[in-house]
Task: structure prediction
Amino acid sequence: MAKTYATGRRKTSIAKVWLTPGSGKITVNGLSLDAWLGGLEAKKLRVTQPLALVKQDTSVDINATTLGGGFSGQSDALRHGISRALCIFNAEFRAVLKPYGMLTRDSRTVERKKPGLRKARRSPQFSKR
Result:
């Protein structure tokens, strides 16, 4: 099979994912997954969750580029991108990933600040006198 490309997004992060048949190597921004995320084991599990669900963790290689946001947003964007790439790679994986919400973009972003308020919803302190 050929290279498969997909884009994943979360908050202000974007992950470009290229999926190829291989041995299970995951490379993010030129680093291995362990080097990129360091000791954040929960985030590593989150990134590899779609691969584990479709039992492809040792049969595909992933090369990804992430930008924007922090590690949390980038790892979730990577998870979304991997899920979308797997569906393009094999259409039967969609039925497995869809019930787990892997193909849905998490649209929660930071709410904008409104004029006259200190934050998005926090009003200035009230002073009676």
Observations:
- The chain has one domain: 4-100.
- Residues 15 and 66 are 4 Å apart (CA to CA).
